[in-house]
Design goal:
CATH class of the largest domain: Mainly Beta
Number of strands: 20
Order of helices and strands: HEHEEHEEEEEEEEEHEEEHEEHEEE
Oligomer: single chain
Distance between the termini: 31 Å
Shape: globular
Largest sheet: 6 strands, antiparallel, barrel
CATH topology of the largest domain: Thrombin, subunit H
CATH architecture of the largest domain: Beta Barrel
């Protein structure tokens, strides 16, 4: 799916997973881990540090075409001075942000930095309103399928809601907008306010941020991806590591190759002559088998150097030469 406009249109509060069957009347039933009995306690501890976001982006920004100019979602406070983490697409190229605290009070905010590889972004709430409540970080590396979790997200024009859920899978996630996580969480059931919602363990510790909603549940980004890049994001607006080469295309697995399903206007792929509907067969002379393979070969190349792609266009073999770009240079990241 393309990155759709972020918004929520329904209100849903799920009590949680069913408790174990009751025993004799004289002995209270012992609930299974992750039932409603545990969920609300974790939710209650975390809710004060979960804030709702309203975001505006100028119509002439590159991201406005796919993400829209008005967005809403959730951020999670990390320190008492107002630093908060959210999903990057929510605040990409934003020039106006408003954060709604759990108390209902609203404060201004600004974008601090992005990590396009993980999909996380940092914002900072108005420091004059500090100190803010915070969420402790958990051990994302220890998360396993079946673990009980809670999702806490802020509705666009409503309350912050908690939902008892479970991790259904831990595996790689590959998306068609040149994005891949080597390890991501799949979580169900779904929450109506998913973009940037906190994913917390049974002790109320932040283990991830909910990013996307798929038919089978949510994709969540492990929070341990933030630690290695947090300081550089605060200081410089982006990670210190080298960026991945970027083409500005949407890639889908297709029979025999990689289908170009869309192009970023003015992006490297479009400038190099790729067209929607082309099927990529080779990268620098090497056959690619799927989107994952295509990304790995693309990201092994150098930014700014010509890259030859063997394609099929309308049934005819052809070659195009593209010059990958630093994606951080294509967007305007920090708030003014």
């Amino acid at each position: 799916m393309g990155l759709a406009r972020i918004g929520v249109v329904a209100v849903l509060l799920v009590a949680g997973w069913a408790a174990a069957a009751p025993g004799p009347a004289a002995v209270p039933p012992r609930p299974d881990p992750g039932t409603a009995a545990e969920g609300p306690s974790a939710v209650d501890r975390v809710r004060p540090a979960v804030v709702g976001l309203r975001v505006r982006v100028p119509a002439d920004r590159l991201s406005a075409v796919t993400l829209g100019t008005e967005r809403s979602g959730t951020a999670v406070l990390l320190d008492r001075d107002g630093l908060a983490v959210t999903v990057g697409y929510l605040v990409l190229e934003a020039t106006w942000l408003e954060a709604r605290l759990d108390t209902g009070f609203t404060v201004g905010a600004r974008v601090v930095g992005h990590d396009l590889e993980s999909g996380l972004a940092l914002i900072r709430l108005d420091a004059t309103r500090a100190p803010y409540p915070t969420v402790p970080l958990g051990e994302a590396a220890a998360v396993s399928p079946g673990d009980p979790v809670s999702i806490i997200g802020a509705l666009a024009e409503g309350p912050t809601l908690g939902l008892a859920a479970r991790v259904t899978a831990v595996r790689p996630f590959v998306a068609y907008w040149e994005y891949m996580l080597e390890r991501a969480f799949r979580v169900a059931p779904t929450h109506p306010a998913f973009g940037g919602a906190a994913l917390v363990d049974a002790d109320g510790r932040l283990i991830g941020l909910v990013s996307l909603r798929l038919p089978e549940g949510h994709v969540a980004i492990p929070i341990d991806l933030l630690a290695p890049v947090r300081e550089a994001m605060v200081l410089d607006g982006r990670p210190a590591r080298p960026p991945r080469p970027w083409l500005g295309l949407r890639a889908l697995d297709a029979e025999g190759g990689i289908l170009v399903a869309g192009l970023t206007p003015g992006g490297p792929a479009a400038r190099g002559g790729l067209r929607e509907g082309d099927v990529i067969l080779h990268v620098a002379g090497t056959r690619v088998v799927d989107v994952t393979d295509f990304y790995r070969r693309l990201w092994a190349r150098a930014i700014g150097e010509d890259l030859e792609l063997g394609i099929v266009r309308d049934g005819t073999p052809a070659t195009v030469v593209v010059r990958p770009r630093d994606r951080y240079a294509a967007y305007q990241f920090r708030s003014p």
